From TrEMBL:
The active site is at residue 388. Keywords: Glycosidase, Hydrolase. This is Glycoside hydrolase family 1. Belongs to the glycosyl hydrolase 1 family.
Amino acid sequence: MIKFPSDFRFGFSTVGTQHEMGTPGSEFVSDWYVWLHDPENIASGLVSGDLPEHGPGYWDLYKQDHSIARDLGLDAAWITIEWARVFPKPTFDVKVKVDEDDGGNVVDVEVNESALEELRRLADLNAVNHYRGILSDWKERGGLLVINLYHWAMPTWLHDPIAVRKNGPDRAPSGWLDKRSVIEFTKFAAFIAHELGDLADMWYTMNEPGVVITEGYLYVKSGFPPGYLDLNSLATAGKHLIEAHARAYDAIKAYSRKPVGLVYSFADYQPLRQGDEEAVKEAKGLDYSFFDAPIKGELMGVTRDDLKGRLDWIGVNYYTRAVLRRRQDAGRASVAVVDGFGYSCEPGGVSNDRRPCSDFGWEIYPEGVYNVLMDLWRRYRMPMYITENGIADEHDKWRSWFIVSHLYQIHRAMEEGVDVRGYFHWNLIDNLEWAAGYRMRFGLVYVDYATKRRYFRPSALVMREVAKQKAIPDYLEHYIKPPRIE
Ligand SMILES: OC[C@@H]1[C@@H](O)[C@H](O)[C@@H](O)c2[nH]c(CCc3ccccc3)c[n+]21
């Protein structure tokens, strides 16, 4: 038996755009809602045409999903509070004290009691109260609660992605390209900390800022808003996201003493061959920049005291590896992802390393989570949670093996001293996989979107065995070794 500590958490998670909608009146409009409804995006195939309002309906069915989670022995949840639900109207006019340095960086935002009163008058208080009901229901069941303040969806008064793509960021509400987003996000963070902070055991400010900028401004075929190819925009959005984390960290701490983290998608980067190490170094550099800033204050070669010391824990979203090689184009060395490995495999296929791949074409590579954890521990020595790990596997072919083989690698890292405190499987239930729609099914539990009924997949029972015992029992040890196609 491979035992985890008795206080190690096994959890589930929810995201407004992906889980909440599906019952009448549960809709909320955000930049992602507009993006997924855009006729041109659907006609071009950039998005699947599946709509969030046809989703699992967690907004009204949360009691059922919480009891399923408890049935499976899960004792933690990270739950997203949707900014666009809480503030459907602009908050620009709410006066707060903003300090900028001579570089125009937002170094302080103070949201005082009178600003909170103004925000309360602007907010959709029915939404806030409904979230209080959701969070309280989970807490009453004895679960640990982590509140996530941003999982990619922004209010449309801050970001109109179609207009950005068509008219350019200077003639449209441009989201993270606009410095005001740092200030408005800070107001939202302060408001939620004040309104719901009594329920939170932990916080994190945002999910995967790296994905927001690379999928939004570089890999524009990924189906992420605004699909505006521009490296300057990528850098600007990245800087504002880093500042937004620090300003939100301060805003939360003004109303809550609980730990505040940052969640990021870490791929296990590997060089294709000798000489490609530089490509790995460059790819890691982008990931590290989002943590060197809040931990060390380092951003683009300068140290900023307004960023430093603003992180209490790291959330690791791990799915697979990425094999990289150096590419020389027009004299500029850059990074190329090698097909046949990691995220770049054939859906349902076999990788170049004889590993099975998910319905999404992601190679099952459990060793990578060990490598990522060891690397982050060496660099930051900060408490960590695996905040996402899972597989698109509608027929549940690999999910049991996936879960146990990854947990084994996480346990290996813990045996070597890495402070990992929990594991949130992605995901408890099938949900809307962004541009890919409902065809990618990540759930331990199948969702019939017509009836909203939930059905356990066999792997849910494997998850239950592990979560209830906080161990990999002997009768599951055959799943420890990484899956391979012989
Ligand atoms: O794709 C599965 C999940 C999403 O449903 C979550 O909302 C998101 O946090 C998340 N991140 C990743 C890894 C990074 C990634 C994001 C988008 C597309 C491909 C890879 C996988 N996932």
